[in-house]
Amino acid sequence: MDGGELFPSALFRLGPLTVTSTVVTTWAIIAVIGLTCWLLSRQLQTRPGAVQTLAEGVVTAIEDAIGAVAPDHVKMLLPFIASLWIFLVIANLCGLIPGVHSPTRDLSATAALAILVFLSVHWFGIRSQGLRRYLHHYLTPTPLLLPFHLISEVTRTVALAVRLFGNIMSLEMAALLILLVAGFLAPIPILMLHIIEALVQAYIFGMLALIYVAGGLQSQMLRQQRKENSDAEGEQR
Amino acid sequence: MELSWSTFLLEIINFLVLVWILKRFFYRPLQDVIARRQRGIEERLAKAEEMQRTAQELQKKYQGRLEQWQAERQQAREVLENELKAERAQRQAALQQELAQQREKAAAMEQRRQRDQHRKLELQALEQGSQFAARLLERAAGPELEERLGEMLTDAIEELEPSQLQQLRAQLTERDTVAEVASAFPLAPEQRQKIEALLQEVLQRQLHCHYVEDPELVAGLRIGVGGWELDANVRDELHGFARLAREPAGD
After folding, report:
1. Nearest-CA distance from B11 to chain A in Å?
2. Which residues cross the membrane (chain B) (predicted)?
3. Higher pLDDT, A83 or A4
């Protein structure tokens, strides 16, 4: 947070694509995460050390959180949801490093993540039940609700992107303004708030993504259960 | 706050790459390790359950064996108690029998002791009577008594049965021709003639009498012919009385 750049700037071009500081920071985060995971995966043992215990604790905690919402699809949802949480925690906390901006203060990055969540909801739904049966849930309980379903899909995706972007950007802007007004060391309480806010926003984004994906999966399951119950009642009669 | 499509696209790619990296190097290895550990724990749990089941079976088996041992011990104890009762009864019977025998033996010994005591008293009385009679007869002895005893001897010889006389004669040999006649006092000539006549008549042979005086006889005569000896004197009678007293009652 040098305060010089409130918005991400273009660093260089890669063919037709413009590479901004957000992308470079994301690459650095991916590199650190990848290197750490690679080193960790070479030292895994049945009797875990402190680092392995921490890593297993993280994975187990995320598995439990997913299991509480979608108990039948933990294995399928774990890579996507856990990657969201891990990336967002690190990306949000990047803003604490002097000279580094959080990638999530860029609406393009948060919109990308929100689009990925939007697509994953449909991807997991279609993957588990098939396209036709998945699309059928937009017509339930009545086809009259189809517009509202569509609006909901768009608005919640936009809300995901804007919520994360707005919070992280406002944190950095607040720290910048305090630094400009009050001087050196004054934004330290704001930095404490930044840590909490970063963790909370990461949790909210990941949990909402999990709920949206699980909602798509469970709507199929609910319909299946209703159908099975009605079939069973028909057989009894 | 403008949307950069390049950043948008690159961020999507970045995140998908991150998902792949994490899945390849983080989730899968960790889940494999956790699953491997879980399998190990389950195997150990299965082993522990198997061991527990085996232990329970062994416990049940040993419990059954223990109960069987207790039953056998109880049975053995009852058998032992019965044997002890029988042994006790047998020994009591034997003891009673031995006591009865001891009692009988003690009664017999007491009876014998009393008899011996009675006999001892009797002997003592006889000894005292013999001594008293000896002292009395020693003081009362004299030629008259001797004459009287001589008459008793001659009467006794005359009253002998023929078989006894025959036996007397058969005991004498040809060389037995001298009869030794001892007396406490000197015999009168007519007494001597009477004795010689009587002996020759009884023994039917010619005898020569040798007369001796023996004051120890107190009074009376002793006639010896060959192996025979005929007594009618106070000393020998008293000795005979004392000997008779010493002999057992049943003899």
Report:
1. 6
2. 6-27
3. A83
Q: Give how far B48 is from chain A: nearest CA, Å.
A: 20
Contact B11 A22 (CB under 8 A): yes
d(CA A128, CA A76): 10
Question: What percent of chain B stands above pLDDT 70?
Answer: 97
In degrees, rounded to 5, the angle at the alpha carbon of residue B2 between the alpha carbons of residues B1 and B3 is 130
Kindly state whether A90 is in contact with chain B, defined as any CB-CB distance less than 8 angstroms.
no
- Alpha carbon of residue A35 to chain centroid: 21
A117 contacts A160 by C-beta, under 8 angstroms: yes
Chain A CB contacts of B27 below 8 Å: 59, 78-79, 82
Percent of chain A at pLDDT above 90? Answer: 38
CB contact at 8 A, A103 and A25: yes
Q: What burial letters (b/e) apply to B157-187, b meaning 16+ CB within 10 Å?
A: beeeeeeeeeebeeebeeebeebebbbbbeb
CA of B63, closest CA in chain A: separation in Å?
Answer: 40
What pLDDT does B13 receive? Answer: 93
Lowest mean pLDDT among A64-78, B171-185, B211-225: B171-185
User: What is the DSSP secondary structure assignment for residue A7, as one 8-state letter?
Assistant: S
Q: Do the Cβ atoms of B134 and B238 come closer than 8 Å?
A: yes
Confidence grade of residue A1 (pLDDT, cut at 50, 70, 90): very low
